[in-house]
Amino acid sequence: MINGKNGHDNLNLMLADFCYYNRNTFNSRYTPLNLGLLAQYTNQEFGKNISTSLYKSVDKFLKNAKENPPDIVGLAVYFWNTALNQYVVKCLREMFGKKIVIVLGGPSIDSDKLEQYKFLTEKFPGADAVVVNEGELGFGNIIKKMLSDRKNLFKDHINGVSFVRDNQLIQGSFTGLNLDLSTLGSPYLSGLLDDFMHSEYQPLIQTSRFCPYTCAFCVSGKNRGKLRGYPIEQVKEELKYVSKKYADRPYHQLRIADENFGILKRDVEIAEAILQCKKDYGFPKIVNFYNDKRFTETSRAVISLLGNMTTGGLKLSLQTDNPETLKAINRRNVTKEEIDDAIAWASNLGISATTELIFGLPYETKDGFVGSLNGAIDQGFDSILCNHLFVMDGIELNRPSHREKFKIKTKYRTLGANYTKHNGNFIAEHEEVVVSTNTFSYEDFLEVRSLNFLFYAVFTLDFQKWFFQFIKSEKISLSNFFLKFIKPNRNISWPKGYLRFLDDFKEAVEGELYDSREEVIAEAKKIYELNNNDVGEPTQINTRFGARLIYEEREWVKQVLLHHFTEMMKEKLTEEDKNLANSLISLAESERVDLRNISKRKSLDFSFDVINWKKSKFKKPIRDYKMASKKINFLLDDTRLSSIKGLKKHSSDYGDRDIYYQAVSTVDASILLHNLVYEDNKNQINL
Fold this sequence. Notes:
Radius of gyration: 26 Å
Shape: globular
Strand order of the largest sheet: 2-1-3-4-5-6-7
Distance between the termini: 61 Å
Strand content: 15-25%
Mean pLDDT: 91
Number of strands: 21
Helix content: 40-55%
Low-confidence stretches: 1-8, 682-687
Number of helices: 23
């Protein structure tokens, strides 16, 4: 090789996209499509002049590097694996000094020159260069120069690449967002990703590249380029290839990595190909993607084909409806009329509608954000994801000028279960969460944090959604109800389990944030060592406590919900109201699949047509759906049954709490609920 290790003149390339391996990261491990595409390109361009290997595991990477030293290392850097990459860069320098070239790429690389300089001098002083934007062209230019003039590799500009020389950032000319995808073959079809297509990794497919939107909170918002699609016949063959490989694991989701699937007219044809794969191979049963942010006719056609297979159905991610905020983050939403039309359209097809809102953006206030949450409920969204803004490398809002302009203050928290030890070295990731700006306080943040949890539990995990839609129709503000639920009058005699749950939640919320990254790492290390070198309970509070609320706290839920309902209704409460609320809570309990004992549920008698009430997006009061009493049966179709059995098989050695966490974090919420069918329906699907 070039460094004279074995007498050959080909370059040894090692590409890595590191991830963490523990019981709580199962649903976040994906096939390294990014590495596969990079390897596909370099193999096509340089052929026998290079040898390439791909890695997800730090252990395997360092072991192989020691046995067969690399010439070039390419590392994919994301906010969820930054510490792993920093550790590996340090190890490589200790092993090889400057004999090897270390190149970083990925969405964490900012397009801003000052940010690139800081990234290379402060976060990764051991790295040689960063590839900006898409990786193939810039990384290929490094290889080309390595093959021709290794000694002068970083003497002159390299297009698509930035590096530091003599304490100055040297930038090559802009490239990387104009690769002709028709020239790039498939890493699936060439076999480059075969080693990763086993049960540990979920499959990724990309059909197009580039996002035309410029949102300042997103890593894609900084890019300027051209929307391009891979050859459609190649995409179809990839879908077949992946579906055959995963046919024995139907509980996995197919993730489409496009930033806006449904933006190109041909995406309808791709959606039809996905449906054909489901028919031919039994995979995929569930597809995860973000549809085009503009709800065009093409996007409608894609959703009409795949809507009932998707996680969240129709996704209209609003993020905010504050005009000042939208301007500050370079975003334009669809209009209220367009949203109403889209939700009505989805409702007629029986497809759920989802939106996302982010608290913490510039100019956002607590009261304005609560108003946005209530507005999303009133508009009829089935699922409302309430997120908190966090800043990271690669987004415009992380730049010092933006932080100063909006007085962005942050705290730190552990990033899920992304921590481990390697050869005695503790490694952990973190999130930097925005906890105040010049328009909201830390106290506002904590209050919205509590609302965030209950919106997630109700509108994402379907916790007692029948009951909450009912009380909404009774003119009870859900945000007010949620706050009373989280902060009840302690002078009242409440069930001990309820108070214990609230105390645990409060402790988790107040204890998850730290003033420095060092404090986060120290706490994660303490947890790891107390658990005999294993991760502790999942740190995602919403998921963890949502799973607990649904599966472990059922003994007090009905009593507590009815008590708060009674208090808020006061003199307006009738006996019929209480009976109806009680019945709807019981309905939700029966609707939920028992993950430990999948068995046939007893039918329930109901004198309100709840099935059509839900289909109408709860627009009218339930009393408008009065009917002669019918029995509701609780059934499981093949998709639900196979997904739940796959989950149980994967989690067979876990305790109850870990199984419940895996269920709500891995499987779409609708999969965890029975189908509701009236007994007189002739088209029932039996368990």
